[in-house]
Amino acid sequence: MRQHFKDIILKLAEKDDRVILILGDISVFLLKEFADRFPNQFYNIGICENTLISMAAGLSFQGFHPFVHTIAPFITERSYEQVKLDMCYNGVGGNLVSCGGSFDYAWDGATHHCYTDLELMRMLPGMEVMQPGSRNELGALIESQYANGKPSYFRIPADEHKLDLPAKFGKANVVIHKDSAALTIATAGPILQNVYEACKDLDVNLLYFHTIKPLDKEVLAEYSNTKILVIHDAFGLFEAICAASDASVKYFGIPDKFCCFYGTLEDIRTSLGLDVRGIRRIIQGELGELKCRSIK
Amino acid sequence: MDVFCKNIREHILRISHYSGHGHIPTSFSVVEMISAVYSIMHHEPSNPEWEHRDIFILSKGHAALAHYCILSNLGYFPIQDVRSFGAFNSAFGCHSDRHTVPGVEWSTGSLGHGSGVAAGIALSFKIKKSPRKVFVLIGDGEANEGTVWESLMVAANLRLNNLIILFDNNKSQLRCLPITKPSEKFKAFDCDVAEVNGHDVAALKEALSSISGGRPKVIVADTVKGWGCKTLVENMFAWHRRSPSREEMEMLLGELQ
Question: Which CATH number is B26's domain given?
Answer without folding.
Answer: 3.40.50.970
